[in-house]
C-alpha cells in the first residue's frame, strides 16, 4: 500500500490547480451524465461523444497525479508528462468533437484515426502501468500482439491476423474497443456510486455505520471480529471495493481484534473476507454487477435482488466461524463502557439511513436507472448531512468530495479502457467465437466439468486482473458456452462474477489479503489460507445457484423460502466443520460429519443435477430426500456433541468437587 501511495505526486502551484480542475471536472461531468441532464439539452449529444470527454478527463490526470517511476519527482510534473496529458485530452476530445462524422466513416482508415489510435492505446497502457503495475499492461499488449500474429500459432489459436492499421483504429473507435461497454458503464453508472461513497464519508456517514456495528456486536464473545464483519458489510454496501474497504475499516478493526485475543493472521483474514463481500452485497455492489445488468439488458435492481441471498449466506458463514473461533479461543466481548451509546449514535446518525433507503427503493422497488438512483442518493446524503451542524458539509468539503471522486475514478477509467483493449483484440482475432466451442468440446457436454474449468480460469485470471476485467473477459468468452448448455443467463453471469471476485482472497495473488496482512503485520500465507476457509461459502454457492435458481430469488415464494432455510442451516454446519468447534473442539471425523451434513442441505435437488436425472426422481422428491438426510445428520451431530459435552462437564465438576473434599 505504501508503494502505491508513493506513486502519487504532492503538487502545489499551477500544477495543483490543473490536477484539481481535471479531477473535479471528471466527477462533475460523470455525475451530470448519470443524472441524465443531457436529455434536456437543446441539441443531440451522442453517448460516444460523452465517453470521449470522460476518457479525456479520466486519462489526462493520471499523468499529472502519478509518477512514471520511483526516480521521478514527487512535487513537480516533468515536461514529458505534460505532453502525455495533452495527448490524453486530444484523443478523447477528437471523439467528443468529431464523432457524428466518424460514425459514418468508421470503416475508412485515415491518417488522423491511425495516429490517434496508436496514441490512445499507448496512453492507456502507460496509464495502467503507472496505476496497477506491469502485469496488466503486458497482458493487454499480449492480446494486441495476438490480434496481429495469430496466424503464426497452431490449432485452435490460429487466426488470420489483422494489419496494424486496422488494429489501432478498431481498438480506438469501435464499440468493442476502448469505448466499449466497460468504460460506458463506469462513465454512466459506477461514477455515481463512487460519488455516493465519497459523499457519505464527507458528512460522517461511515462513522455512523461503524458505530452501529460496534454497538450491535461489540459486547458479545469475539465482539470486535463480529463488529468487523458487520461494519465491513455495511461499508461494502456503499463502497463496492474490497481493498478500499480493508484500508478504511481494517485500520480500526484489525488492531481491535488483535487486542481482543485473535491471532494476527486470523484478524487480517476476517477483515479481508468481510471487505471482499462488499462486492456482492446489495444495494451497491462491485462495478462488474452493473456490467451484468448492461450485458443482460435487465434492471440493476434485478441483479441486486438476485445477489442478496448468496451475499447473506456468505456473511452468515463468516459470522458463524467468527463466533466459534471466539469460543475456541475463549475470547470475551468489549466492556459496555467502551461501546458507543446507541441513543447518541442514532440521534446524530439516523438520518444516514435515508440515503440507503432511497437506494433500496429506487433500485429494487421502483426500477430506476442505476445512475439516476445513485445521484439521488448523493443529493439525499448531502441533504441529510446539512440538517446537523457537526455533519453539515462546507464548500471546501464538497470540493474535496468531488476531487476525491475523480481521484478514485482514475483506476477504474484506466482498468476499464484496458478491458476494452483486451476484449477488442480478442474480438478482432475471432478468439471469442472459438473459446466457447473449445470449452464445450473439452467438457464433453458435462456442465459440472465446464463450470469447474470456468471457475479455475476465473481465479487464475483474477490473480493478475481486477474483478471487473475478469468478469468482462469471461462474460464475452465463456458466457456463450454456459448458455449453450442451458444455464439461466443471470445465474451464469453471477457465477463468473463470484469467481472473479474470489481472486481477491485466493492465494497467491490476493490484493485484499495483502492489504489486511500488511495492516495486521501477519504472515501472508497463513492469512491467505485462513481467508479461504472463512470465505468457503463463496466457493460453493455459485455451483448451487446455477442448478437451483431459487437461491437467486427466481421461483415461487415457497421454493425460495425452503431454499433459504435449508441453505442457511447447511451454511451453519459448514461453518462448524471449518472452525472445528461446536460445544467443544471437534476431531476430523466430526468435522467431516458436519461438512457432509452441510453440503447435503446446500445441494440442489437431485433431479436437476446431471447425474441425478437418470434416477427418474421428481424435483420435489429429490429435494426432500437430500434435505431430510442432511438435516438428520446435522441434528445427530448436534445432539451427540451436546450430550458428550454435558457428560464431560459433569465428570469435570465431580472431579473438582472430589479434589476439594
**Distance between the first and last residues' Cα:** 61 Å
> How confident is the prediction overall: mean pLDDT?
81
Total DSSP helices: 29
Q: Report low-confidence residues grouped into runs of 5 or more.
A: 1-5
- Morphology call: globular
Amount of beta strand: under 5%
Q: Roughly how many Å is the radius of gyration?
A: 26 Å
Number of strands: 0
Structural class computed from helices and strand pairing: mainly alpha
Roughly what percent helix? Answer: over 70%
Order of helices and strands: HHHHHHHHHHHHHHHHHHHHHHHHHHHHH
Main beta sheet, described? none
Based on the model shown, name its key terms.
mainly alpha, disordered N terminus
Describe the protein in words:
Helix content is 74%, strand content 0%. It is mainly α and 661 residues long. Mean pLDDT is 81; it is low at 1-5. Among the domains are: 2-175, no CATH class; 555-656, no CATH class.
Amino acid at each position: 500500500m505504501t508503494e502505491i501511495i508513493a506513486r502519487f505526486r504532492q503538487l502545489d502551484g499551477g500544477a495543483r490547480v490543473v490536477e484539481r480542475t481535471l479531477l473535479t471536472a471528471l466527477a462533475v461531468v460523470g455525475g451530470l451524465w448519470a443524472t441524465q441532464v443531457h436529455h434536456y439539452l437543446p441539441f443531440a449529444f451522442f453517448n460516444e461523444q460523452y465517453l470521449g470527454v470522460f476518457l479525456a478527463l479520466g486519462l489526462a490526470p493520471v499523468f499529472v497525479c502519478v509518477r512514471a517511476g520511483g526516480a521521478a519527482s514527487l512535487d513537480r510534473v516533468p515536461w514529458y508528462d505534460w505532453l502525455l496529458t495533452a495527448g490524453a485530452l486530444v484523443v478523447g476530445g477528437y471523439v467528443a468533437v468529431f464523432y457524428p462524422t466518424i460514425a459514418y466513416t468508421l470503416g475508412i482508415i485515415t491518417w488522423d484515426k491511425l495516429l490517434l489510435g496508436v496514441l490512445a492505446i499507448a496512453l492507456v497502457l502507460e496509464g495502467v502501468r503507472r496505476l496497477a503495475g506491469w502485469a496488466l499492461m503486458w497482458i493487454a499488449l499480449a492480446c494486441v500482439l495476438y490480434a496481429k500474429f495469430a496466424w503464426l500459432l497452431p490449432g485452435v489459436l490460429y487466426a488470420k491476423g489483422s494489419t496494424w492499421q486496422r488494429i489501432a483504429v478498431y481498438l480506438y473507435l469501435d464499440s468493442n474497443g476502448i469505448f466499449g461497454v466497460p468504460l460506458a458503464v463506469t462513465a454512466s453508472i459506477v461514477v455515481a456510486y463512487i460519488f455516493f461513497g465519497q459523499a457519505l464519508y464527507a458528512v460522517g456517514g461511515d462513522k455512523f455505520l461503524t458505530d452501529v456495528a460496534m454497538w450491535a456486536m461489540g459486547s458479545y464473545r469475539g465482539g470486535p471480529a463480529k463488529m468487523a464483519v458487520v461494519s465491513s458489510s455495511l461499508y461494502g454496501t456503499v463502497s463496492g471495493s474490497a481493498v478500499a474497504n480493508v484500508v478504511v475499516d481494517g485500520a480500526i478493526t484489525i488492531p481491535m481484534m488483535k487486542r481482543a485475543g485473535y491471532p494476527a493472521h486470523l484478524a487480517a483474514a476476517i477483515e479481508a473476507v468481510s471487505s471482499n463481500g462488499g462486492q456482492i452485497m446489495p444495494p451497491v455492489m462491485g462495478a462488474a454487477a452493473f456490467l451484468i445488468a448492461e450485458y443482460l439488458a435487465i434492471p440493476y435492481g434485478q441483479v441486486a435482488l438476485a445477489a442478496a441471498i448468496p451475499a447473506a449466506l456468505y456473511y452468515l458463514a463468516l459470522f458463524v466461524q467468527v463466533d466459534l473461533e471466539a469460543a475456541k479461543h475463549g475470547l470475551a466481548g468489549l466492556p459496555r463502557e467502551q461501546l458507543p451509546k446507541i441513543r447518541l449514535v442514532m440521534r446524530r446518525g439516523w438520518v444516514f439511513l435515508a440515503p440507503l433507503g432511497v437506494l433500496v427503493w429506487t433500485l429494487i422497488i421502483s426500477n430506476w436507472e442505476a445512475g439516476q438512483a445513485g445521484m439521488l442518493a448523493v443529493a439525499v446524503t448531502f441533504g441529510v448531512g446539512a440538517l446537523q451542524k457537526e455533519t453539515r458539509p462546507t464548500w471546501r468539503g464538497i470540493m474535496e468530495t468531488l476531487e476525491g471522486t475523480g481521484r478514485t475514478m482514475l483506476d477504474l477509467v484506466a482498468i476499464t479502457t484496458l478491458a476494452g483493449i483486451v476484449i477488442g483484440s480478442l474480438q478482432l482475432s475471432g478468439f471469442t467465437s472459438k473459446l466457447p466451442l473449445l470449452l464445450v468440446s473439452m467438457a464433453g457436454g458435462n456442465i459440472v466439468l465446464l463450470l469447474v474449468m470456468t471457475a479455475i480460469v476465473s481465479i487464475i485470471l483474477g490473480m493478475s486482473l481486477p474483478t471487473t476485467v475478469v468478469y468482462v473477459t469471461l462474460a464475452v468468452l465463456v458466457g456463450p458456452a454456459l448458455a449453450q448448455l442451458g444455464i439461466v443467463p443471470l445465474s451464469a453471469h453471477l457465477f463468473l462474477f463470484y469467481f472473479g471476485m474470489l481472486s481477491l482472497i485466493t492465494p497467491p495473488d490476493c490484493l485484499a489479503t495483502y492489504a489486511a496482512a500488511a495492516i495486521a503485520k501477519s504472515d501472508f500465507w497463513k492469512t491467505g489460507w485462513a481467508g479461504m476457509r472463512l470465505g468457503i461459502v463463496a466457493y460453493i454457492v455459485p455451483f448451487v445457484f446455477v442448478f437451483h435458481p431459487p437461491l437467486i430469488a427466481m421461483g415461487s415464494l415457497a421454493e425460495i423460502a425452503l431454499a433459504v432455510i435449508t441453505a442457511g442451516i447447511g451454511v451453519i454446519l459448514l461453518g462448524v466443520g471449518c472452525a472445528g468447534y461446536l460445544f467443544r473442539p471437534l476431531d476430523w471425523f466430526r468435522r467431516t460429519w458436519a461438512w457432509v451434513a452441510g453440503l447435503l442441505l446446500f445441494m440442489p435437488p437431485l433431479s436437476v443435477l446431471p447425474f441425478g436425472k437418470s434416477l427418474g426422481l421428481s424435483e420435489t422428491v429429490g429435494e426432500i430426500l437430500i434435505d431430510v438426510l442432511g438435516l438428520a445428520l446435522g441434528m445427530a451431530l448436534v445432539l451427540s456433541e451436546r450430550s458428550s459435552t454435558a457428560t464431560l462437564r459433569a465428570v469435570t465438576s465431580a472431579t473438582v468437587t472430589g479434589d476439594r473434599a
